Each structure stands twice: as C-alpha cells, then as structure tokens.
Amino acid sequence: MLVFPNAKLNLGLYITSLRPDGFRNLESVFVPLPWCDAFEVLPAPAGAETSLSFSGLPIPGEPETNLCRRAYELLAADFKLPPVQLHLHKDVPIGAGLGGGSSDAAFALKAINSQFKLELTPEKLESYARRLGSDCAFFIRNEPVFARSRGDMFDDFALDLRGTPALVVYPNLHISTAEAYARVVPRTPHHELRQSLQAPMFTWRETVSNDFEEALTPVYPVLAEVKAQLYAAGATYASLSGSGSAVYGLFPKLAEAPQLDWPAGYTVWSGKL
Ligand SMILES: C[C@@](CO)(OP(=O)(O)O)[C@H](O)COP(=O)(O)OP(=O)(O)OC[C@H]1O[C@@H](n2ccc(N)nc2=O)[C@H](O)[C@@H]1O
Ligand SMILES: Nc1ncnc2c1ncn2[C@@H]1O[C@H](COP(=O)(O)OP(=O)(O)O)[C@@H](O)[C@H]1O
C-alpha cells in the first residue's frame, strides 16, 4: 500500500502554560498542506525480516528510531503482524515546523491498519498516534482543527481555505522542536484565536501570531527577512509555521503565489491549499 503523508501549517500558535509532564499547553489551528512524502508498506518476502529503506532527503537519526518504524512496532506489539518492507521517500524538510515526521508516523499507522485489516477506528488510531508525538494525532483526521492541550486534542474548526495560493519557504535551517519550546515563556494569549481567524484574512496580520516567532527571530533573523519578503510580494498573511524554520505566505484566492528568487539552499513549495 502506497500513501502520501502531507505536511501541516499552524495558523496562530499560543503557548499558554507549562504542564506537570514537562510539555506545554498550546492553542493553534492546524491545516493540512499538500506538500507530501511517499510511504509504502508491503508484506516482506518469505524469510525476510522487517526493513525500512529511504530515498529523497536524508533523515537524521538511526533507522530504528524513525517514526515509520516506531509506528509499525507500536502496532506489532498489540497485533499479530507479519514482517514488512517499508519504504519512505522524504520530500518535506526536516525541523521545519511542517510536521513531516509526525505525518509519516500517522500515515504509517493508517496504511498498516488498512493493509492488514486491523479495523482500528479513527479514535483508536489517534490514541496510538499520540504515543508517537504530540503532532501525530492531527494527521489521522487531517482536516482543519483547533488544537489544544499538548497539541493532541482537537475541536472541529470550520475554516475553508481550499484553493488559497500558498508559498512555503524553508531557509535551510533545522530548528529542534525541544530547543524552540525552551525559548518561549508561556503566557495568556492577547487574542482569542478562533475569533481572530473568523475575521477576513487581511486582519490576521494584526491579530494572529505564533509565539515561537517572537522567541526565535532574535536568534534567527532570517525568519523575519523571509516573512518581510512574503509580505512585500503581496501575501495577505505570513507567519512562521510551528516551531520553524519554514515561513509561509497566503495570497489572495484569485492570484497565483508569486515566483521569487531565494538564496541557494532554500527549499520552496508553491501551490494551493
Ligand atoms: C511545535 C509543534 C506545533 O504544531 O509543531 P512542529 O514545529 O514540531 O511541527 C508541535 O507542538 C510539536 O509537536 P511534536 O513535533 O510532535 O513534538 P514531540 O515529539 O511530542 O515533542 C518534542 C519536544 O517538544 C516539547 N513539547 C512538545 C509539544 C508540547 N505541547 N510541549 C512541549 O514542550 C517537549 O520538549 C518535547 O520533548
Ligand atoms: N520519518 C521522519 N521524518 C522526519 N523526521 C523524523 C522521522 N522520523 C523521525 N524523525 C526525527 O524527528 C525530528 C523532527 O522531525 P519533523 O517532524 O520533520 O520536524 P518538525 O518537528 O519541525 O515538524 C527529526 O530531527 C528526525 O530526527
């Protein structure tokens, strides 16, 4: 079975308090971004052990700790699964705040569920996904949600951005999620996120923000430079996604995302939400 794990964007992100488990409570709206990896699961040939192979962007870390492998092991602990042949083609940049690794893990759970007819409900898949990472559960339902708690509890959020042109710029900078969280002091948000996002998109520039952006920009000024370029090119709204370092711009629906020149080494995705 072949699946295409997509990335996500965060529309606003407020880190509200430190939790007793050491994680932070947050509020954010997650939306799917159709920038995808490819993941395949097949039963292993007779006599072969479970394997995971890669193509595309190199992924830091040992293959045994890759989230696709961990997704298989998690299900194999509870269900009688045969050895499998896994392959991941990586296209979504890593350490970008686009949730690429989390999406691979969630899509691996969904693909193994279908391939081996485990008949797990979406709720059960979400609870497995939560064990692999805070962001993972989002990719089970994979539609716009208001996320809270550790970023793993969701309320439906009706926001139809389909067809909105987007430009996502990865300035070749890997920011570790744990490092980014350590730089933010939790606080009460200045604006109610869901209310702000119900207003027209041109108002979001004043009312919708990402707490990581304020904390990381003094350390990585390139983030502000990319954002300024996106606004200068006509973005209606621009922001850091998640804990960075990808910065996105959303453009008017009847326009195309502009073609801009970026320094060598940057990776750019352009398309419609
Ligand atoms: C910041 C966000 C926003 O959507 O996305 P990314 O920038 O990673 O895409 C997420 O909260 C990232 O979730 P995820 O990448 O799954 O993080 P995890 O593996 O669960 O945790 C990595 C580390 O981040 C910190 N962490 C994560 C989530 C959270 N609510 N509070 C935290 O303090 C912890 O230090 C943890 O050890
Ligand atoms: N399948 C995977 N794809 C990407 N990263 C992975 C994967 N499995 C494990 N990782 C680890 O997760 C870390 C963060 O991954 P990623 O989800 O791409 O970034 P972000 O948290 O910024 O959205 C990487 O440093 C990498 O070591």
TrEMBL record:
Residues 66-140 form the GHMP kinase N-terminal domain. Keywords: ATP-binding, Isoprene biosynthesis, Kinase, Nucleotide-binding, Transferase. InterPro entries: GHMP_kinase_C_dom, GHMP_kinase_C_sf, GHMP_kinase_N_dom, IspE, Ribosomal_Su5_D2-typ_SF, Ribsml_uS5_D2-typ_fold_subgr. Pfam families: GHMP_kinases_C, GHMP_kinases_N. ATP binds at residues 93-103. The active site is at 8, 135. Residues 210-259 form the GHMP kinase C-terminal domain. Pathway: Isoprenoid biosynthesis; isopentenyl diphosphate biosynthesis via DXP pathway; isopentenyl diphosphate from 1-deoxy-D-xylulose 5-phosphate: step 3/6. It is an enzyme of class 2 (transferase). It catalyses: 4-CDP-2-C-methyl-D-erythritol + ATP = 4-CDP-2-C-methyl-D-erythritol 2-phosphate + ADP + H(+). Belongs to the GHMP kinase family. IspE subfamily. This is 4-diphosphocytidyl-2-C-methyl-D-erythritol kinase. It comes from Hymenobacter terrestris. The gene is ispE.
